[in-house]
User: Fold ribonuclease H from Cirrhinus mrigala.
Amino acid sequence: MGHQRIETTAFVDSGAAGNFIDQAYAAQMGIVIEALSQPLKVTAIDGRPLILSPITHRTQELTLIIDNHSETIQFYVTKIPSPAIILGHPWLVTHDPLISWMSRRIIHWGATCQELCLRARVGTCSGESGALDVDHEAIPVQYRDLVEVFSRRSAARLPPHRPYDLAIDLVPGAVPPRGHLYSLSAKEQLAMEEYVAEGLRAGTIRPSSSPAAAGFFFVKKKDGGLRPCVDYRGLNQITVKNRHPLPLTNTTLDALSGAHFFTKLDLRSAYNLVRIREGDEWKTAFITPTGHYETLVMPFGLCNSPAAFQHFINDVLWDMLGRWCYAYLDDILIYSKTLEEHTQHVRAVLQRLLAHQLYCKLEKCAFHQHSTTFLGFIISAQTR
Assistant:
């Protein structure tokens, strides 16, 4: 269809005997169609007729892109209800996708699809890896089909509301105090403007008219950079505390006995992957010399952030924890006795993270190690 790009929603139907597009939608979008050599009767896979009138046209070849997956496809043209595109049983057989029904996303493509579609995409569309901002070569080959779990761009998106949103419940009668307005140096002023602009662009912060107003300042990082901070001490003093426990490290070390392979994952901007409970955003408001804003995602500095995130990651990985996986906030350790089972374990964790829209910082991950450091400990086959 030339260089025209259309974003739309497709319906996946295992009972459909082909791939279909609505006739009116195709005409509206200017999609070129061609006549079939003979009319086609449409049936379900069990033989039941689905459409009274036979199909007489199909689209010319189109490029279908789903996340980092690309293919050439044609659709039969007929009258169908919304959504206007149906991907049927033959498409499912070809690609054998693993679908997260909760997030309505495909988190893994089948082996045949990886061999044909994804390999062709790496060879012909190298710009996609740039779009995802991921170095494919740094990913072990066993997990390159899960490239999106390492995407900076995906991690920067505003996450959805979940049952694990951070609640900020105040003690009865308490009101968030107005904090100190910190003066900033010229360098800090520029960094603040960049921080605010990026947050507004990503949708993770928004302008506020809240009575709350915590102070905003910077601390220097070891590399000389500036780390933005919000002084939430006043808010924390009047917040009802969440006592969800953090894991005991010595319990984890005991579970590692007999393991010979270790993979360490570091979640990217982990706290920012959790939303503030709807209606509580005003309590997170902060002030800068040039504005008043509130955050929509969980920031560092709130007293209940660690407990809320630990609760979330525990539930995400609940059936893996203690068996071959350990999670301490945004640090995840995977341990196995053999390389074969370790590869399966790492893949299972990456798939689960992606299904829940959690992303890894590739540059801080270490794969298939015989020895690694984790939470300040040296982990190896000799760890007891």
